Amino acid sequence: MGLGPRRPDAGRLQHRSAALFFCRDFANGFLIAEILSRYYPADVQMHSFEAVASSTRKKQNWHLLEKLFKVKRAHTTQGRS
């Protein structure tokens, strides 16, 4: 008598889900904006950013961040193709 296929436990699934959201939020710039808003509240208004998967909105989020980086003279490298 077999026990059937093993199912991943709920904790592992929850961890995977959290990791996906974490990666998505980094990719669209939302998490970076949220961190920077803590240090530069006058310069980063979170209502200007959206946590979305749309490539157009991701670019808009990163454009806003790039403007902040220029103002703060933060050096960045871009990995755009």
Structure description:
The chain is built from three helices and no strands. With 81 residues, it is mainly α. The protein has one domain. The longest helix is centred in the first third of the chain and has 18 residues, at 10-27.
Number of helices: 3
How large, in whole angstroms, is the Cα Rg?
Answer: 18 Å
Whole-Å distance between the termini? 54 Å
Q: Biggest sheet, open or closed, and with what strands and sense?
A: none
What order do the SSEs take from the amino end to the carboxyl end, as H and E? HHH
Structural class computed from helices and strand pairing: mainly alpha
Number of domains: 1
Number of strands: 0
The low-confidence runs, each spanning 5 or more residues with pLDDT under 50, are: none
Mean of the pLDDT scores?
A: 79
Question: Which percent bin holds the helix content?
Answer: 55-70%
Strand content: under 5%
Structure keywords:
single chain, about 80 residues
